[in-house]
Amino acid sequence: MAQKPSIPKGTRDFSPVEMAGRNYIFDTVKSVFKKYGFLPLETPSMENLSTLLGKYGEEGDKLLFKVLNSGDAFSGVDYDGYKVGEENGKRFYNSNALSLKVCEKGLRYDLTVPFARYVVQHQNELTFPFKRYQLQPVWRADRPQKGRYREFYQCDVDVIGSRSLLNELELVQIVDEVFSMFDIRVCVKINNRKILSGLAEISGHPDKLIDITVAIDKIDKIGLDAVKDELRERGLDDAAISVIEPVLTLSGTSAQKISTMRGILAASEVGLKGVDELEELFGLIETSGVRQEVEIDLSLARGLNYYTGAIFEVKAKDFAIGSICGGGRYDDLTGIFGLPNMSGVGISFGADRIYDVLLGLDKFPKEAVSGTRVLFTNMGAAELRYLIPIAKELRLAGLPVEIYPDNVKLKKQFDYADKKGIKYLAIVGENEVNKGVVTLKDLTTGEQVEVTPAEIAEKIK
Amino acid sequence: MAQKPSIPKGTRDFSPVEMAGRNYIFDTVKSVFKKYGFLPLETPSMENLSTLLGKYGEEGDKLLFKVLNSGDAFSGVDYDGYKVGEENGKRFYNSNALSLKVCEKGLRYDLTVPFARYVVQHQNELTFPFKRYQLQPVWRADRPQKGRYREFYQCDVDVIGSRSLLNELELVQIVDEVFSMFDIRVCVKINNRKILSGLAEISGHPDKLIDITVAIDKIDKIGLDAVKDELRERGLDDAAISVIEPVLTLSGTSAQKISTMRGILAASEVGLKGVDELEELFGLIETSGVRQEVEIDLSLARGLNYYTGAIFEVKAKDFAIGSICGGGRYDDLTGIFGLPNMSGVGISFGADRIYDVLLGLDKFPKEAVSGTRVLFTNMGAAELRYLIPIAKELRLAGLPVEIYPDNVKLKKQFDYADKKGIKYLAIVGENEVNKGVVTLKDLTTGEQVEVTPAEIAEKIK
User: What is the C-alpha to C-alpha distance for residues A321 and A318, in angstroms, rounded to an integer?
Assistant: First the structure.
């Protein structure tokens, strides 16, 4: 009996047309990463749960996909050890503990923790600073909704083992070059976590850095007033909020913002360090001739707690969508795996959103998403013997060529070319074989010419 | 407290050096697939277990990695419904049924079943014949051992919706072109399942096709005598074995083998059909000018039961390893999902084994696995301001360039270039900045020259 086929919710098939667009994105970012000396790395889809648990907060732990131990996972489980109650003869067990007993592995939740695990595990084989990029899927058991999937690709680029701000500059240059290649206008927003630490300090709540970060991270979505409400809920008094508020709405040039912040944070050592770093980075950016817009956004916070220095976010200027790229500097990502004092910085490109922007702005280059260039018709065995060597030569010249596999009505073969968007049809019947030619039809213009086999490549290029 | 990091057994990290080799393989096969009109497809890593179960035999079902339902998988499980026994107050449950209750999804076991599922699910959107390639990892809970992993990539190329033997020819041409690009000499072995059916028929055991297939599939590993023993164990009498044996050891040219088989199988309609198909395919192969060795191997069986026509296997001639590529024609792969009569044919490239062959024969092209071309030294802020625009120009010209991020001792910067195999060092100190030049050192020869920024690209290309 036939099953009606489907796929798990939150997952996707990518058709050839979608894949062409996605590969254009992946190939472009990879080509830029390589020009800056970043090399590819891949880690396993499954990591030990002990590697993943506790790294993404309590909420993140719940969103991990756990993989059942292979073999007979439940045999030998001492259920009585997991019993938490009994009612009317029915027993209840501790689900969470039971799931950890039968699952030792989980699917990768992001590329950052596996990267940190890799660096620590292979520290003696690596040359530092270690620069890697990684393009692989990650899995999250989030509730699926528009634009949020349970399996999606991340494109991460990181350098670890160097504190130099030149690394931050190169990430900005990479963003600049990638989006210029995509012909997408973006704004790169930059802030520094040390400035936020300084703000927490001078507001009199040095212990509230995470609360402040979480609250102001939402400013784009909920607005200034709601952020102030949340700060209040999180225990900041009006005096503290009045220190933070003007910073969030600061305007002017980068130089002006830096100068203002230097005044506001005069009493905070860490805050001034953040201002220094921002100033040095913007100096480097000026030297480098970055073409896209780069601005200081002091309301930029980024949710992740491991950031300790520069933080980045990239927005498309001509298309309404969340940030399409983000990252920052972390000083102790590898500490949890036993390797302290390894500062690194990285950014992640959001392939799904970039895809939507390219599609929405009609910026996918036609040649990047086109497949077969010419389809040879199939009119029988004699014609095939004649055209197989011709098709072979065209392929050797690098052209994507198809021969319609079956000897069916020409109408059907035309339809195939039409549906697949193949521009040229090479018609080969008895007449063409006898004359030693091919009839080449341009399906977009309808123009039809007789050419020798040697002339085809030139004609269709 | 620090954890000692590790990865699940049977899985692998791929370092930048390994990735370079793997990407060379993937990029090469993709470039050839495209020239024959095959387009990329990707399916989700997780499929519904109902899609996967029962498709790979009983043994395969056991090797599926199951993914625990998200949320609280065990809450609401009526354990009493799974109880199979009780002893001294300890209860025992049906492990297998329990695992299906708490797991609805499994990791992809191969690319063929997801492809069949995709074709059926999207049949109304596809243009047939549908040609796709797919390069993605698959997961199997096999016992890990040398050369056998729990996560590995498959590279499949299939065309579905056409019975023409031109499709078989194109797969042979693809194999020919791929391995010629790799500079690996191979032998393409071809047989036809209909010939094996015919043999089963004339041996008087038409019901024993699968037993015969399974037994003779092992001939390379266990030899002729052991195969005969196994055929006997599987219920074939000596008369039947004496019909099959000479076929397995048949020698001579393809034409001679075809002629002999036509005699042996004269009484079997399906057997003769198989011989006709082989003959037609070899006629097409001759027309096409395939350069690699192609031979009929009547002992070739291939284990998978869904094959119904041509079957292929590719072996490296100069390196001892199992088959590095294999596939065949299937007439009803989509039937189980409700779409009968969809004949297709495909092959799969074994990336791990091809990697071992390329490495073993030292055939990885140097340029395919090299990264950064030139490293700029870092001697301070003034030098950086001078060299950042120079590095930028080189990158715009497509050259992979690094700037050492930290202003540390030159020795350390030299070591970095040396360890990463970077050929050129661009030394920029105060002297170079004042003269408007760069000192370019070839680290392989030790040669050192002063050049203008504009001359660097030419010099290091």
Answer: 9
